[in-house]
Amino acid sequence: MRRHSSRRPLFVVLIGVVAACNDVPPTAAPPLPPPSAVLIPVAPAGSPLPDLTADELALFERGSAMFQVSFAPENGLGPLFNATGCAACHENPVVGGAGSNDPEEEGEDVEVHATAFNGGVCDDLAAVGGQVVQQHVTPALHDSLGIDAEPDLPGATATGRRTTPAVFGFGLLDAVPDAEILALADPYDRDGDGISGRAHRTADGRVGKFGRKAQEATLRAFNGGAFMMEMGVTNPGHEIEQTVGGNPLPAGVDPTPDLEVTQDQFDAADAFVHFLAPPKPEPLDFYGVIGSFTFLDIGCASCHVPALVTGPNPVAALSLKVVPAYTDLLLHNMGPDLADVCLGDARPAEFRTEPLMGLRFVTAFLHDGRAGTIAEAIRLHGGEAARSRNRFLQLSLFERVALLRFLRSL
Q1: Is the distance from CB of 369 to CB of 174 less than 8 angstroms?
Q2: CA 217, 223, 229: angle at the middle one, nearest 5?
Q3: Tens digit of pLDDT for each residue in 195-224?
Q4: Helix ranges (DSSP H) in 139-262
């Protein structure tokens, strides 16, 4: 049963107000965090986590360089791909940030997914090259097959568009214990608040955290999949090239021997993502402080839980930290208007609550970029979020301005 509907969100939002507001005193003193936890390890966007060791910081820098490598066929690109490097998409406002997220653009920053959902069972169409439909091919593959992009996946019952998220603070999310997430779940809505979030269990039974459907249990798996799905670069977790419609690649179109990224190279890139700090929120003015309480009052924090706490971790910078996550990492039914693909046991209308760390840098909102403003994104929330959406629509102009001021500070 959910245990966060009042006490925890109030505690964490008050912490955020105390940390971010220079001018307005809080109306109440926040409860103390767990004795061994350190508050909010934030830094300027693109910066490493505070308190990394010298060796960890050096690994972060090597990983940053790897993250910014531009691949070509001669060093592993493709033959099917969406982008030529990690930073080609994760670029705004700094390396590790979101993509341009233009909903009219396909390819590097807005990708296409396709799956099949029949009889309540999801097929990610991996056997025919799914679930990501790559928008580019190398010249050699073009010359061999006469295609400019991966063909539509046979058997697909739905397609969906995905904007590129920022990866700020993802290492901290990776360090959140499964028990912390499961404590927030209420799949049968036993508390009657209309919110029935549930954990996405992967095929091997682990709790999913990463991806818009929470389909990956670990950040390492998420990163390895991105190398393969987005750039066609084989790596220690993904050693076999993508197929074209389930057919093996024609001989000679992939000149680079596998693995195209070594273990050391992948470890460095993975460390870079693990060690990126959440962006420090902007200071709150009077409107922002009021907005932080409006966020609570209309129920946004029921899913966008303002903070999670990491467990013990061998990396001190990730251990026992309060993360300004604004997510519960659970799946929620967002209604038929937002439904698209399935993944694992996540049904078409179910999406993992999007973390709001670095929200102020986002230029297009929701999973597919269809909303041009935060207010529009809220209006498009359905399903379990309908009650909070309706409360938002009933706010006074002052309350709505205050709420949006708060959200734009994140």
Answers
A1: no
A2: 105
A3: 999 999 999 999 999 999 999 999 999 999
A4: 139-145, 170-174, 178-182, 219-231
Per-residue tokens: 281: 């929120």
CA-CA distance, 213 to 404, in Å (whole number)?
Answer: 26
pTM as predicted: 0.90
Cis peptide before 366 (omega within 30 of 0): no
Cα–chain-centroid distance for residue 198? 17
Cα–Cα distance between 207 and 183 in angstroms, integer?
Answer: 12
Check: CB of residue 347 under 8 Å from CB of residue 335.
no
Count Cβ atoms within 10 A of the Cβ of residue 397 and give its class: 0-12 exposed, 13-18 middle, 19 or more buried. exposed
C-alpha to C-alpha distance for 40 and 45, rounded to whole angstroms: 14
Which residues partner with 115 through β-bridges? 158
Beta bridge partners of residue 110, listed in sequence order: 163
Query: Where do the H-state alpha helices sit in 276-349?
Result: 286-297
* Selection from 394, 352, 345, 392 nearest residue 162 by Cα: 352
Give Dmax (Cα) for the chain: 69
Q: What is the DSSP letter of 85?
A: S
Q: Which residue has the tokens 């994140």?
A: 410
Specify whether the CB–CB gap between 233 and 224 falls below 8 A.
no
pLDDT of res. 38: 59
Q: Chain-wide mean pLDDT for the chain?
A: 90
- The number of CA neighbours under 13 Å toward the Cβ of 258 is 15
Cβ-proximal residues to 229 (8 Å cutoff; 6+ apart), any chain: 82, 132, 134, 242
Residue found by looking up tokens 């799949």 in the block: 187
Q: What is the pLDDT averaged over residues 16-42?
A: 48
Separation in Å, CA 342 to CA 248, 334, 352, 400: 25, 13, 12, 33
d(CA 62, CA 48): 12
102 falls in which pLDDT band (50, 70, 90)? low
- Kindly write down the DSSP assignment for every residue of 22-33, as one continuous string: SSS--SSPPPPP
Residue type present at position 296: L
